[in-house]
Amino acid sequence: MRVSIAGAGLGGLALAQGLRGAGIEAEVYERDPGIVARFQGYRLVLNPIGFQAVRDCLPPRWHPLLDEIVMEASAEQLVLDPQLHELGRLGASRTGIVVDRQVLRHLLLTGLTVHTDAALIGYDVLPDRTVRPHFARHNPASAAPAGGAEVAVVPAAADLLVGADGITSAVRGVLSPQTTPVDTGVRFVIGRTALTDEFAGLSKAFGSKIAGDGVSLLLGAMRFRTPPKQAAEQLAPEVTLPDIGDYVRWAIILPPTDAPTDLTAPEAVLSRMDGWHPQLRALIEQADPDNSALLSIRVVKPAERWAPGPVTLLGDAIHATSPTGGNGANTALRDADLLRRSLIAADEGRHDLLGAVDDYERQMFEYGAEAVRSSLEKLPAFAPGAKL
Prior knowledge:
The chain is built from 11 helices and 17 strands. α1 links the parallel β1 and β2. The chain is α/β, with parallel strands linked by helices. The strands form 4 sheets. Strands 6-5-13-14-15-12-16 form a 7-stranded mixed β-sheet.
């Protein structure tokens, strides 16, 4: 069996690792000009399903390394005012496994074949029910991925094409053109700041919501048991992980009527924090500007199923959620593990391929739609006026 995966995000890479471990040929095509063309190093909270999914997709020999680069976390989910006084609670305490997205992505890249600067422009379903994707390359010079091998893009027929290419999925545009992203109108600025002793006093705010005048600031700590680079050198020398230290991930959610237009990300945040606690302002002032960005909150709601065939979708390409649900990465990793299991069953002759894909899609549509619904249900608590 040969599987082509469009998109080198967490879901696509987890699927590729899981198939590779089962002896199934899988190649990844990424439209970015290089693996590190965009910064993707934010803190994620994985629930038990998401963490077990990524663990099951990885080779067992890397499990000790995975366990070393994550942390268990719990948060009371308080509501605080800009002076850090408690106003209430968001709900029950949240627990999970905290991981840095950039670190996890580098682990998932190890040993994979990744074709960068490969933008999918269409595909053909051939008479024998295989699929031939077509890619366009615009920039012949690309940065080498961590642990992977970059090769020229050569269209080749595959038994299955998986669109794991995000909210603007080119695969979805062909497979299910009626399924389009919905803009909630909400914008948020996300960034990170080194976790120094100066910010020890903010510990009660980690995992909580700080409610200002029409805006919400969210903070989360990323602390490593062992620095990722050092952990890889000790436990899996064939893996190269980023050399980063502990940090605070922060995000400020802006209502639809308050989207910045001409400010840098930290400036956009500070302009809405007049009179806030000095430690909160210092946190933003000391943020790494290269790792801060203004983003929109858009969702993709899975609707009608497409006709069965050798093409399917995974992750944000079919069920992009609002970050207020905390379930985007978890659902994409769940997809990867479920599709991995289905394809292994087909490869071993326990299921035909289209039946295996149909079984995956039937389950994925159900829990994916629920993930989107749940994330939107939580959005008004952070951004009143969102278009739902």
